[in-house]
């Protein structure tokens, strides 16, 4: 027979475990809270987040800190900005391992290559002279050039490796324009020299992600099993 004290202990243990369990399952699912942004300044990652299908570009903007830089610059600009945002599909269609083989500096350059330091409304691309200046490199002429051509309403971007059309407008406010592109704009400076060599460890990132996913699932299963065992044992002890 369980004494009142044992029952109290059991209830205490169970509620603790339950709260602990809730805590574990919620914290593993939540993303860290975003930093507060000044009102009025458009936040590129938030706009892209609402537009869906830009998770890889958002991750790159954040990991390279270009998103912070854009927030500051958009807060204090007369020229504005134009951004070409590649979809997740665009990133997934890159040669496997292409992103992984880049060093930190090249990642920043790749992201900045998608940022033009002026606001260009869609109808004004025909006035841009080639090569269009991007924010990659030290903005010297000819460094990280991006060419534009227009035909009717179609705006085509050419890097020398990539040729793709502006596929849509995600956001525009007279100061910032964000355009959708269905291919990652690959600058020659980063991707040309090694384009003939096989990408290192093809398929590895995907496999690694799969393994991480599996081990996470396994650890959740073990966690739940342990919780169940503790409940059963506590219950048996209290009888
Ligand atoms: C935006 O500009 C205001 C006024 O110029 C300044 O006080 C504020 O710190 C700036 N915010 C960012 C994120 O740069
Ligand atoms: C870009 O335009 C410049 C100037 O017209 C030209 O010299 C260059 O070959 C072009 N490059 C590409 C990749 O289209
Ligand atoms: C190209 O590959 C070589 C080694 O194969 C590496 O040292 C170099 O940094 C790479 N260049 C670029 C632009 O990725």
Order of helices and strands: HHHHEHHEEEEEHH
Give the tally of structural domains.
2
Distance between the termini: 5 Å
CATH level 3 topology of the largest domain: FAS1 domain
Major beta sheet, specifics? 6 strands, mixed
What is the helix content?
A: 40-55%
Spatial ordering of strands, largest sheet: 2-1-6-5-4-3
* Oligomeric assembly: single chain
Give the name of the CATH superfamily of the largest domain: FAS1 domain
Q: How confident is the prediction overall: mean pLDDT? A: 78
Assigned CATH class of the largest domain: Mainly Beta
Spans with pLDDT under 50 lasting ≥5 residues? 16-20, 22-31, 195-209
The rounded Rg comes to 25 Å
Distinct compounds present: 2-acetamido-2-deoxy-beta-D-glucopyranose
What class, by secondary structure content? alpha+beta
Membrane topology: Lipid-anchor; GPI-anchor
Protein name: FAS1 domain-containing protein
InterPro entries: FAS1_dom_sf, FAS1_domain, FLA_A
Keywords: Cell membrane, Glycoprotein, GPI-anchor, Lipoprotein, Membrane, Proteoglycan, Signal, Transmembrane, Transmembrane helix
Structural commentary:
The chain has helices spanning 4-29, 44-51, 55-63, 66-74, 88-92, 104-112, 188-191, 204-238, and strands at residues 81-86, 115-116, 147-151, 154-158, 163-172, 176-181. With 239 residues, the protein is of the alpha+beta class. The chain folds into two domains: 44-200, FAS1 domain; 203-239. A six-stranded mixed sheet has the order 2-1-6-5-4-3. The longest helix has 35 residues, at 204-238. The radius of gyration is 25 Å and the shape is elongated. The protein starts with a helix and ends with a helix. The model is unreliable at 16-20, 22-31 and 195-209 (pLDDT under 50). The protein binds 2-acetamido-2-deoxy-beta-D-glucopyranose (3 copies). One 2-acetamido-2-deoxy-beta-D-glucopyranose (NAG) is lined by residues 190, 193-194, 197. Residues 41-185 form the FAS1 domain. This is FAS1 domain-containing protein. Belongs to the fasciclin-like AGP family. Pfam families: Fasciclin. May be a cell surface adhesion protein.
């Amino acid at each position: 027979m369980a004494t009142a004290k044992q029952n109290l202990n059991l209830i205490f243990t169970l509620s603790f475990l339950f709260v602990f369990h809730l805590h574990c399952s919620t914290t593993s699912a939540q993303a860290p809270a975003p930093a507060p942004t000044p009102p009025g300044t458009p936040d590129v990652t938030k706009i892209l987040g609402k537009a869906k299908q830009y998770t890889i570009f958002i991750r790159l903007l954040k990991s390279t800190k270009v998103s912070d830089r854009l927030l500051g610059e958009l807060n204090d600009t007369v020229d504005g900005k134009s951004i070409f945002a590649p979809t997740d599909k665009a990133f997934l269609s890159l040669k496997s391992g292409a992103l992984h083989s880049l060093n930190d500096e090249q990642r920043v350059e790749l992201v900045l290559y998608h940022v033009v330091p002026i606001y260009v409304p869609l109808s004004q691309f025909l006035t841009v002279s080639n090569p269009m200046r991007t924010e990659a490199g030290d903005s010297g002429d000819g460094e990280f050039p991006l060419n534009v051509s227009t035909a009717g309403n179609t705006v085509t971007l050419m890097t020398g490796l990539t040729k793709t059309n502006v596929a849509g407008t995600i956001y525009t406010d007279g100061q910032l324009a964000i355009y959708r592109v269905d291919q990652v704009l690959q600058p020659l400076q980063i991707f040309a020299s090694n384009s003939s060599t096989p990408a290192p460890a093809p398929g590895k990132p995907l496999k690694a992600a799969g393994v991480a996913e599996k081990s996470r699932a396994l650890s959740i299963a073990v966690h739940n099993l342990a919780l169940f065992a503790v409940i059963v044992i506590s219950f048996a002890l209290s009888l």
